Structure formats: C-alpha cells, structure tokens
Task: structure prediction
Amino acid sequence: MSLFVKKPLAGLLAEAQEEGGHSLKKTLGVWGLIALGIGAIIGAGLFSITGGAAANQAGPAITISFIVAALGCAFAGLCYAEFASMIPVAGSAYTYSYATMGEFIAWIIGWDLVLEYAVGAATVSISWSRYLVKFLSGFNIHLPASLATGPWDDGMINLPAVFIVVLVSLLLIKGTKESAFVNGIIVALKIAVVLIFIFLGWKYINKTNYNPYIPDNTGTFGEFGFSGIIRAAAIVFFAYIGFDAVSTAAQEAKNPKKDMPWGILGSLAICTILYILFAHVMTGVTNYTSFRGQDGIAPVAVAIDHMGSANAAGVVTPDYPWLNRAIIVAILAGYSSVILVMLMGQSRVFYSMSRDGLLPKVFSEVHPKFRTPFKSNFMFMLFVSLFAAFVPARVVGEMTSIGTLFAFILVCIGVMVLRKNEPNAPRAFKTPLVPLVPILGIFTCLFMMVFLPLDTWIRLLVWMIIGFDVYAWYGMRKSVLSGHDTASYGRSNRIIGLTGLALVVLLAGVAFVHHTTVKEGGSDTGLFYFSLIFAALHLVLYAMRLNKK
Result:
C-alpha cells in the first residue's frame, strides 16, 4: 500500500486510446477547446469580482492585479500545455500528479480541484442569480429577496442559483458534443458583449477617476497600496480559471497532442487582453468607490449607468439605456457557459479518480447512450446547488482562488519531476526554459496565496483535512494500484498521521492568528471555535492512526 506509487505513462496513454461504452466520446477539436477555455474564463471573475476587488483592494490599479495574475497563469499554462499534450487523459492536474509524484499527492490535488471547479461553479451561479434579479426588475418583476439570497446575505435560500446549476447539469448529462455546441454560441455572444463594453465605454473614460492610480494603503494589510494590488491579484485570479479546465477534457479531444496546447494557451492569451482592457474601462468611466457595496457582485451595471452625460446636479443620464439590459442578458448566458465548463471539469476529475479506485465506482459510471459520467454530474448538481443556495459569494470565490493556485503549484512541480524521471518520454509540446518557468510559476502562485485572507486559508486547511479522512477511510484501501499492497500499511498510516498532524497544528495556528489580528468587531468567533474543535478532534484521530500497524 505505497502512498507514492506512480501511474505508468504507458498505462495512461493506453487509457487515452480506449474506445467503447465505458470511455468518454471524442468530439472536441481545437476551436472547441479554445471556446471551452474562453467559456470558463470570461465570467464571474470579470463581470463580478473585478468591481469588488477594485473597490476594496486595488482601486484603478486592478489592471496591474490582472497582469500579475496573468503572469502566474502564463507560467502554469505552459506547464499544463506540456502535460496535456503528453498525457491526454481526463483528470487534469490530478492525472499529471499521479504520473509524476505518486498517488498520495494525486489525491491531494484531486480533492483540491473540488474547490476549483465545484465551488467555482457555485460562485458563478450566485452571481448569475444577482444579475437575473436585476434584469427582471427592469420589467417590474421583483423576486422576493428571501428567495434570491442565502442566509448570510439576509435571505433564506438562493433559488435562481439552484435553478441554473440544475439546468446546466442536465445539459451536461445529455452529452459533451451538445454542451460544446451551446457553449460555442454563448462564447461568441460573450466576446461580443465584452468588445461592445470596451468600445462604447472608452469615450466615457474620465482620467480623474485614475487619480490616484494606486490609492494609499489604509494602514491595513491588503487594503490598497502594493499589498492591495497583490491581494486583488489573488482574488481576481479566480477570473482565470478555465484554461486548466480545458485539460480535463483531454480524453474527449479528437487530436489532444496537437490541439490541447492551443486550447490552453490560446484561450488564456485572448482572455488576458480582454480582461486588462475591460478593467481599464470599468474603473475609468466611474470612480472605483462606486462599486463598493452598492451593487454587490454585479458591478458592470454600475459602470454602464455612468456612461452618459451629467446634469447640473451631477446626476448621470446613461446614453445607452438599452445596453444595460442587453449586456445583462449576455452575462446571464455567459455565466451559464462558465458553470457548464466548471461542472464538466469536476465530473471528469472524479471520473479519473473513480477509475483509479480512489473514489466509489459511481463517479465513473458512463451513460450507455450519452457516454457521459451522468451519476457524477447528478451528484455534483446536488452538492453545488447546496453551496449556491446557502454560502456567501465572497467565501466561495476566495476558496476557488486558493484551490486553483495550489493546483497550479503542483503542476509546475510535476513538470520538473517528469523532466528528470522521464527525460526521453515523447512530448508534443515542451515547456520552455525548464526549470526557470516552473519555478517562476511556483513563486508567483505561492506569492498570491500568501496575500489571500486568513479565513480563506482556514477553509482550505479544513477541506484538505476532510480529504485526508476520505483517503484514509476509502481511497487508500480501494486503490487499484496500491490497495493490495498490505506490506507497507503501517508506514502509510504513519505518513498520513504525521501529515495530518502537521495540517491540524497549522490550522490551529492560522485560526488563532486570524482571530487575534482581524479588525475589532469583525472577528469571526464561530469560525475560530469551529477550527479549534475540528483541530482537537483530528489531533486525536491522527495520533491514533500513528499507532496502526
């Protein structure tokens, strides 16, 4: 039961060539992959999180934050492209880690990807709900606030968010080809909307809104100044998840060795340019403080309302009143494609983990007609719906960012490991300047992780400890590669026990620092005591595991 057994490259390549009723259907070409990436990238991060990050962390310098985040993505994207062309199998970073660093690390990254994809889909669905409410209000249709917001936002349940998750999940169950076709239409609409916003908004830019371009730090770490730019970069990093989701569809690509690098790097390059221009216009047509608290997670509508002429009283009359409604329609459609790609990526990761025995077989059961992992889609429909219905958008958005950054770090490490261990393995695409590019990717991503709020680190640690529980209880015993190797069972338990204890101690330490340094009156006492109780319970469990033979 070796925790670090590696999946042979020959076996992975054979899996990629599988055909038949138990394999995924190959339907995606290069443009389908690029559209898949753009479909996931342009969404909540651009239309929603940008405004909040500008208002609370970076000011007009949010454009610099996007550039910093793009650098981290570029380094990681080059590493992803090498892996995707070399190991064209569903599972993304999970599969790459299994081939390079062994089963235990692969489990950690696979579990972490739940944060990136499933929780990311929940974030976008919450934003979709906010825009739907605003759109319907234009027709004098007002949904009850208690049924359109979660309990932490003074409501009861976010039903519109649940609705879109269910709708998209049913489309995914129907088939990848149908999903990709719908996604392609939405992507064309979404790019058109972004370009219209940039071109129409450019003439309304008021240069005084850029003064100061980098607001002075308030005295609190992460609120404007240099630390604010980096913290905003870590938050808007969520906006870039999507190019890595392309790699989860590798097994459904017609010519993955050739097309995967184009899909990953092409979608990333296109979206980076659009992001910088979009953020520049958004903070130019109105002062960044306009986005603070006024419209929650829907700031684009605020910017559009300022595209017009002001009267003597300073009240702006929008020149394009139709644009606000039209752009919201496009955003609603665009968010749907983001949710689609996120949920697709998640189901493919769990599909791979299930085939390896680390999760129950239900996650890899393929529909006999549609050839999609329909049961996995259905289960995540329920899981993501619960998050979308009850959890605040800020929380799930930052959890997605930290999960993504962690995944990118492991992929960058994996490229260096595989270059050393498998130097002669065929590579259709090679990451340039190894080890420099992977090291820069690790440094950039880790740098942004450090600048995320401490409560986000607490939630990451809690989630990873839960993952350790699942692996120790199920995955370690059922693994196809290592589950029958009982000779090293005691050693494996000691490794899991020691690693778990280290995470538990780190969780308690981070919770204590967060509790003592948070602004007075803003201390999350409930999260603090939950962390301590959770840590104490697992301290006992992992200590007991150390003694298992």
Remarks:
- The longest strand covers residues 308-310.
- The chain has a mean pLDDT of 81.
- Residues 103-137 form the longest helix (35 residues).
- The two ends are 12 Å apart (CA to CA).
